[in-house]
Amino acid sequence: MANFLKNWWRKRSQRHYLKKHRWHLVIDIFLLLLIIALAVGLFIISRQEPPVVETTPIPHIVQVPAESEEAISLTEPLFSGNVSPRQVFNFEVELENPDLKDMTEIDIQFLSPSAKFRIVSAQATEMITVVKEEEPSATTTTNLKSRGDHLSLSLLEPGQKVKIQAQLTATPITSERTLSWGLVSTYKQGEQEKSVVYELKPLRLISELSASAAAYYHSEHGDQLGIGPLPPLVGLPTNYWIFFQVNNDGNVVKNFTLTARLAAGVTLGSGRTVSSGDLIYDESTRRLTWIIPELPATTTDNRAGLDVQIIPTAEQVGQTPILLSTISYIATDSFTGEQLSGNLAEISTDLKADKLNEGQGTVAP
Q: What is the pTM of this model?
C-alpha cells in the first residue's frame, strides 16, 4: 500500500505540480483540508449527547392520597355538583397543614379543561390551630385574598386549619355538559416550592331555561293585533294579544308548565295560537295553563298567544288595569334532575313590550 501511494504521488507531482501552472496543487490542498474539517466535525458531533427537548406537561387532575404528609389536606363538603352557567354557586373547602413546618405563599387555583372559573367573593369562616393533647385554639388572622380564579393565603402554620367559603361562576368554553375540575395548590416550605393537584367531583351544567309574557296592541312588525280604543275608555271594550315564549339552551327539559290567572274584569277572546304544546283555560278558576311535554336541548321557537278583552269601569279611570297575574313556570332538567322554575311580572294595559303603544294604557273617562 505504501509503494502504491508513493508511486501515485510521484506521477501526480511530475504531471501537475512541477509544471508552470500549479493550480492542481492548490485544489488538492483545499480538498484535503475540507476532508479533515468534515472528519473533525463528525467526531465532535458523535461525542455530544443529544439535546433534551423540554415540553410543558398537559395538566391532568389526579387524586392526592389522603395520607400524604407533604400536601395541604383538603376536605371537600357535600356538594350537589349541579351549577348554572355564569351563575354564582357556593363552594366550601377546609384547608389543613398536617406538616411540622410553616406553609407560606399558598395559592389555590380552580381549573377545568371545559370552563373558566371566576371567584366572586371568598371569606374564611373559621380558623383554628390543632395542638396535640390540647384544646384547639381560635385564630383570626387569615390574610385570605382572591383574584380571578385564584385564592391565596400568606401563611398556614403547622396544625392550623381554615374553612373557606367561596362564591364562584363557571363559564363553559366547550359544549360538554359535565365539567371535570380541580384545585391546584402551590406553596413554600422554607425555600422549597411544592405543588399538589386535587380532583373534585365533576360539575353538571343546568339547562338555561327562560320564559316571557307580554301584551301587545301592535305586533313587533307594526301589524295591528288589538281592537278598540287606545288608551282604553270607560265602558268600551279593548282587546289585546298576550304572548308567552319559552327558550331553552343546554339539556332536554321535561314537563314545562306555565300558569297564569286572568284578572278581574278581563275575559278571554276567541283568538288563540300555539306553536308548541297545549294552551288550556279553566273558566272556574280563571287559570291559563301552557304545557309542553318536552323541550329540546336548544330551542327558541316555542310560543303561545291569546286574545283578551277588558271593558274599563269608572273606578279604573287614571289606572292601568291588570290583564294577567300570578304568572309562573316550572320544568325538570332531564340531565341534572334539577327543578327549573320562575315567576314573571304581571301584565297590564301599560303595554311595556309594545314599542308603538307603550304607556298608552291609562284608562280615560
A: 0.71
